[in-house]
Amino acid sequence: MPLFKELDPATLARLAAGTTRRTLKRGETLFRKGDPATGMYLVVYGEIKLVSSTPMRGARLSGIVGPGQSFGEPVMFLERPALVEAQAASETLLLHLPKEAVFAEIERSPKFARRMIAGLSKRIESLVRELERQAIGSGTHRFVAYLLRHRRGEPGPIMITLPAAKAEIASQLNLTPEHFSRILRELADAGLLTLEGRRVTVPDAQALARHRGRRPT
Question: 31, 43, 143, 39: which is closest to 90 by C-alpha?
Fold first, then answer.
């Protein structure tokens, strides 16, 4: 992970000494909204769903955290209860780094402190971009952009497994489940994707990109 690159062996040893492993089965809850923040988490493999909830809108998927990524830092630093529920979207291995170890290392190592600040800054930038994506364009535009983000510049078809139920992906894209289902049917009828359960295959990413935004749906 970028956070730990170029740290000296002594720093890594101190952080590792306080780190614990946690394995979750698919659907298992790591923590719930309102639980105390005990530290930050690093995903080794698998995926974690972050689900927010309000009385007005109910539960809403607010993010997916995958291998090599971390979560839990903001509430850890604010020393406030968790703002979301964290649930395993698949079998997942996590590393838990307690806040006491993080705070002690920040006091000791300016390099580690700078990396923590950079990581939080990237998280804020990502959230701003996500808000911009939701505010601009049609529902089809937002879903196509979601699929194209999984291309990562690699040639050939895009093949992904949706990390959550279709209704949850719809909520993340600020769509109703019915609207999302209609978008899936339209893209499938146009030959731009195939869908088997949660498995999505896009045979031609360029054709999908050209289709984006053609029709407001």
Answer: 43
The dihedral through the CA atoms of 133, 136, 137, 138 has a sign that is positive
Rg (CA), the chain: 19
**Predicted TM-score (pTM) of this structure:** 0.72
Q: What is the pLDDT of residues 24-54, one digit of tens each?
A: 999 999 999 999 999 999 999 999 999 988 7
Each residue's pLDDT tens digit, 89-122 = 999 999 999 999 999 999 998 888 988 888 888 8
Cα angle: 151, vertex 152, 157; to 5 degrees: 25
| Number of neighbours of residue 217 by Cβ within 10 angstroms | 14
Whose tokens are 């705070």? That residue is: 103
| 132 Rama sector, left if φ>0, alpha if ψ -120 to 50, beta otherwise | alpha
Residue 185 region by backbone torsions, left for phi larger than 0, else alpha for psi between -120 and 50, else beta: alpha
**Overall residue count recorded for the chain in this entry:** 217
Give the Cα separation of 30 and 60 in Å (integer). Answer: 17
Report the distance separating Cα 43 and Cα 22, nearest Å: 10
